Every structure is written in structure tokens, then in C-alpha cells.
Fold this sequence. Notes:
Residues 1-19 form the signal peptide. Keywords: Signal. The chain is an alpha+beta fold. The protein has a domain at 22-108. The chain has helices at 3-12, 16-19, 111-118, 132-139, and strands spanning 23-37, 43-54, 59-67, 76-77, 84-90, 93-107. A six-stranded mixed beta sheet has the order 3-2-1-6-5-4. The longest helix is centred in the first third of the chain and has 10 residues, at 3-12.
Amino acid sequence: xxxxxxxxxxxxxxxxxxxxxxxxxxxxxxxxxxxxxxxxxxxxxxxxxxxxxxxxxxxxxxxxxxxxxxxxxxxxxxxxxxxxxxxxxxxxxxxxxxxxxxxxxxxxxxxxxxxxxxxxxxxxxxxxxxxxxxxxxxxx
Length: 140
């Protein structure tokens, strides 16, 4: 059973208060799970980095990143739609990000931090936000 379908079934079977779950879905070109280690080889953190392809520069640009706090955030192969999907609770919404490609890296540098030299954080597209007023409209 695809991961997203399993999440949807969980939400729908969890009671009427969760049946109105707001799901924010979007797509990126690449999802990377990065395991960042210090100089002694000790794991510092795991993160999911989402990238968009830049035709102008012929390279990926970081769009957003999130700490990998739970195994359910790990991008899963979506056999029915293709690509990979990461689903997690993000504040008041359930966020779903689908990526065309996936990679997993183990580094002693933070790729997201290095990317800030090429594309400052303020210039990133970021993941969509859903404000309190929009949530209220969606629920009613």
C-alpha cells in the first residue's frame, strides 16, 4: 500500500475530528536525506532537504529543509504516482512533498548551509505556508 494512502487511511480512521485534516501538497525536483556527522564521525542530525532545479544555472537550489524527527518523514517511493513522497505534521497541517528524484547522503558538511553561499535563504522559494485565516476557511 502506498505510503500516502496509508496516511490517509490513518487520518480517516482516527475519528471525526481528524477527518477534516488539512493536507498541504506540493512538488519539488529532488528530496535528499542527509546524515550530518561531526569530525569525530558522530551523528549530529538527520535532515530532509528539498531542491528545485534551476535551468538558468543547471543545478539544484535548496528550496527548504526540515530536521528528520521521525521515520515517517523519510521519503517513500510512490509507486502509483511515481517519484518519492515525504509526509509529516507541520503545525496545524499535514504536509506532503512529492519529489521526482531522491538521494541519501552521509556527509561531514551541511549541504543546506553551503547552499546559502549560492542562494541566500531569503531568496529561496520555501514551502507554501497556510495562515490561520486560510485554515479557518478550509475547515468550514
